[in-house]
Amino acid sequence: MVATAILIKNASEGTRINRSLVEMIEGLPDGKYRIIIEPQSVRHSVPQRKLLFMWMSLLARETGNSKVRLYKYFCSKFLLDDMPSVSEMSPAQLTYFMHEIEADVAQNLGFTLPIPEDGEDFITFLKDFKDK
After folding, report:
1. What is the CA angle 37-95-114, rounded to 5?
2. Checking CA distances to 105, which of 34, 78, 112, 113 falls within 20 to 30 Å?
3. Whole-prediction pTM value?
């Protein structure tokens, strides 16, 4: 399990974390963890963005909404005012955004979105949605 919190530190606004770090840590199962603070890379990966839009296709099929409408819904719900558009997000920002979508779908629709750790089920998902 990888948990991500976005930390922004600059001279004009100080230090901000976009969600409670304590809450995130308290939600982890008992065990030892390593916290790594590293500079944020500039852009997300193409596979990461492709997965996001495959999720939108799956959600469109499951809900009857269009991919565009779903994408706009999640952007308005989870993007912070100072965050860039999805196309300009760093990997950490896009990961955060996608984790928020995963949690929302699980809570409101009652199912989990496919992720690479799902093994064969994820491969089946890729085959079904790679061109959608």
Report:
1. 135
2. 34
3. 0.64
